[in-house]
Amino acid sequence: MTDQFETLAVHAGADPDPLTGGVSPAIEMSTTFKQDAVGETRGGFEYGRSDNPTRRALESAIAALEGGTRGFAYASGLAATQNLLYLLDPGDRILLSDDAYGGTWRLASGVWGRYGIQTDAVDLRDLEAVAAALAGNAPARMVWIETPTNPLLKVVDISAVARLAAAAGALSVVDSTFATPFLQRPLELEADLVLHSATKYLGGHSDVISGLVATRRDDLAERLAFHQNAAGAVPSPFDCWLVMRGLRTLAIRMERACANAAQIAAWLGTRPGVARVHYPGLPDHPQRELVERQMRLPGAMVSFEPAGDEAFARRVVAATRLFTLAESLGAVESLIELPAAMTHASAAGSPLEVPASLIRLSVGIEAVDDLIVDLDAALAAAQG
Ligand code: PLP
After folding, report:
1. Confidence (pLDDT) at 346
2. Tens digits of per-residue pLDDT, 84-105?
3. What is the structure's pLDDT at 70?
4. pLDDT at 137 over 80
5. Options 3.90.1150.180, 3.90.1150.10, 3.40.50.10700, 3.90.190.20; which CATH number does 250-383 get?
6. Ligand 1: which of 101, 213, 327, 329 to mutate, judged by most atoms within 8 Å of the beta carbon?
7. 98 lines ligand 1 (CB under 6 A)
8. 148 lines ligand 1 (CB under 6 A)
9. Cis peptide before 53 (omega within 30 of 0)
10. Distance between CA 115 and CA 277 in Å, rounded?
11. What separation in Å is there between the alpha carbon of 295 and the centre of ligand 1?
12. Rounded to an integer, what distance in angstroms lies between the CA atom of residue 276 and that of residue 356?
């Protein structure tokens, strides 16, 4: 019998230590490992950058949670992003969601371009536009799907885009940071690779920077393993352990945060002073049917446009008591931010630019009534 997700999240990669019986994975700090004769290792460990027992535990956990065969851990979500790029060659073209994390765009426009890799922003919800963009002058070699997108919470049909990409000979990647494997499993929807900023929900406590990738394709896994060692952007054993600890409560944290977010999104929709709410769980979300098909729950990220200008939005985000004004997302505590001036500042003037007054909420696991009182008071204070 296959264990359900909630069970896997607690146990994947966390078998009791064979030597001591410790039920929490050991943090193995050795950078090098004794060989009994040249090349004769104990369990395949030689050098800490190439492989490490704590990292291996985390990598097997993310592979299991995503329904993949191999997992890879990196020093950050962007280090993971960069490592996927090593799968491409100069002259290749990437299609990127036209709403995506600003740092992904910064890497694409500020770094990949200099190495001859062109990135085109496309609305991946529009399958005709995807098909046309895949064909292009130089055929695309990778489609970078982010869903739900950051910060406008657009939802992309993973299996439809992955199939179009495969038919055109392009790899499909899903940045599933907002969803986590608890809400959506891209590899089961035919994506080639799934990526997480584990800094967010997987770690879950705003205390570790980390990135993860999983795949079912042996050919890609072999190349990723080579690049992970060759380029060396690996996480520390302690960071791996922190992410493992976060994974164990992922399901229960997500359930609570999603329930809170659904209530807050519905409440915002009724609050005077709020012009537009973006949340995949709202009955009028344009891709409601897809959300129900593709996601277990609609997530815990909400964004909204106040009925006021940027100055008004700046007053709102500075006036909350429980929602902390800070970048990042996905932890137990609720956060509020202004993407255009903060997380997405590097997308200014690009096709990924976001509305100046858009406010993004990362809804945490506090009591929802307290969170609503907090937002209500901040909106009232900003109105003056
Ligand atoms: N992908 C998404 C959707 C993100 O929100 C972020 C960070 O905010 C990243 C990737 C990058 O992750 P990291 O900050 O761990 O490098």
Report:
1. 87
2. 999 999 999 999 999 999 899 9
3. 98
4. no
5. 3.90.1150.10
6. 101
7. no
8. no
9. no
10. 39
11. 20
12. 14
Averaged pLDDT, 233-243: 98
Q: Which tokens is 2 given? A: 């296959």
Distance of CA 41 from the midpoint of ligand 1 (Å): 36
Amino acid at 278: H
101 lines ligand 1 (CB under 6 A): yes
* CB of 211 shorter than 6 A to ligand 1: yes
Share of the chain above pLDDT 70, in %: 100
Residue 306 CB less than 6 A away from ligand 1: no
Residue nearest to atom 8 of ligand 1 (CA): 328
**8-17: pLDDT as tens digits:** 999 999 999 9
pLDDT of residue 224: 98
Instruction: Determine the residue type at 161.
Output: V
Could you confirm whether domain 5-248 is CATH 2.40.30.130?
no
Asked whether the beta carbons of 101 and 126 are under 8 A apart, the reply is no
CA nearest ligand 1 atom 5, residue: 101
Q: Whose CA is nearest to atom 15 of ligand 1?
A: 77
Tell me the catalytic residues. 49, 101, 175, 200
Instruction: Tell me the domain boundaries of the chain.
Output: 5-248, 250-383
Q: What are phi and psi of 101, to 5 degrees?
A: -55, 130
- Model pTM? 0.97
Pair 73, 67: CB distance under 8 Å: no
Stretch 47-70: mean pLDDT:
98
Is the CB of 209 inside a 6 Å radius of any atom of ligand 1? yes
Buried/exposed code over 233-259 (b: 16+ C-beta within 10 A; e: otherwise): bbbbbebbbbbbbbbbbbbebbbbbbb
